[in-house]
């Protein structure tokens, strides 16, 4: 029995484990492993609770005395729930989370054991910064870096799976010289600036607004593969995707997996990780089968952006841990399987005021709709002016496989508003009037009396648009499933804040000149619409016609990551980010270098995996099988069964042809890789990898996948698509 067949046998034998649901109601379970507001209110003095609440709401500084009281309460709470260690939980520019665990246990001078956790340990820790990507901000020998407590994201308890728990404290990560080495620090800065800018614009319409909070709902797509089959695929293990694999006869063409019945084993996994997520305060609400076989999606309730991003990063880690319990490997790669849909992370973003208003929700009241249009058009204008930067924010080696295919938005950044909104904006430009109705009277008449009236939204949903308006929010659909959502959200928050300040500046100038407020607002919005109109597109973003039309409109179609990343270092980007105080020119150049390095390394790993599998797994196995065929053909020939031997000889020739081509291509790819590795200039090296080395991937795959159809099923060394995707 081969390793593959044994793995398949193990996978087939799996059954859904029996789960004992928690005895608590979901509402009681929610947040039970978080140092929540209710916990703080119970354990802290009234003065300390007020100070930390103010810090969370308004960003005021927390003094060390309050930190000491909070740390004592955190320690008491965590230990009472089984925690033995604590860690600053942060998000370095590796794309994953990081943590260094320290024990509460300590010794006094006289050797007595105590449990200790001071305010200083809560506020600040010191991981080794030289071991994380810095993009040249720090030399390798300059090791010092700091993590700092983010009180706006609740501390939580992570089960270690071995009887102990760790108190995790969400934190920023900065270098010794103060530059951001993570996603959270610039994200928090962008949120502060967006709040200030949006609140200042709200003052033109409602002076009761004191705070604007960006909200986010992240839909997470993923694949599940049985652990045994995962380990039977070295490419999945090393590169996160299958570099070889012939498409099965049945894939997703019947559209029967989407929203289909969830298998018991998968459902058990989903229920398990959802309960664990709820304990950590992650408000997961939705689960369903996705389009591709073996693909699924989960989604939470909308939260404040910083918290939503922390929760998504934590959720991905949690899903992997729970997957282990169910003998599943969770795949977050954007394109783990060829020929079927890849996975994205749809970011649904909106703006809410402290008065309970969604600034991106249209109404039937003219004054409120003028406010709605103001924020809508400022977002559109920001995206138009910084489209290449928004494209750069979702660029990666994994997302290159997905963007532009018939499953994900194209590399062209466009905005979908829907016919109703677009027509209304045309009316505004042509007549200076707003004629939008919210749509209370739009009902479908189905002719079935027992079905309640179904209300129609103002806008349809366009799944081919990378940045689409969906009624009361914008959905950025182009984000990759493995990506930290902070990257595109830092960009979106910053460019919108920058644009809102431009709007406020012009409004102030017009009002100072004596222009009436409504007239000034409409005139500015009319110009914004005219200047940004070429980015609005209502049609099929997957079509070739759109590619040509977008070109005629002057829109960028940047397909390669190494080209897209340039947007981080343009004068326009640097000016906006430095004006907002989110990232300096030096920090932006560092992130550009980090992303280029990551791109090169991902393609380098994939190239090595392709070469190793092709020569050491595929060709070696195929030669053995070819020898069996040769013996059979020789025996038939010796028996004068020439006609029967002929097709076998043809198969032998076909196999030989593919082997020769594979060996030649692998050799050429390896030589190109060596050449690329010797290029000093990072961009040129990335370009060589993206244009030359990567160019061999599909060609080698073609010949390997042809061999998969020629070799006896029992002899093929790699787990096949039909085994991985349709096993439940």
From TrEMBL:
Residue span, GS beta-grasp domain: 84-178
- Domain (GS catalytic): residue spans on this chain: 183-618
Q: Coiled coil where?
A: none
Q: Which SMART domains match?
A: Gln-synt_C
Signal peptide limits: none
Q: Spell out the InterPro entries in the cross-references.
A: Gln-synt_C, Gln_synt_N, Gln_synth/guanido_kin_cat_dom, Gln_synth_cat_dom, Gln_synth_gly_rich_site, GS_Type-3, GSIII_N
**A GO term for molecular function:** glutamine synthetase activity
Give GO BP annotations, semicolon-separated. Answer: glutamine biosynthetic process
Q: What family, per the record?
A: Belongs to the glutamine synthetase family.
The entry's protein name is Glutamine synthetase
Identify the species of origin. Answer: Dyadobacter psychrophilus
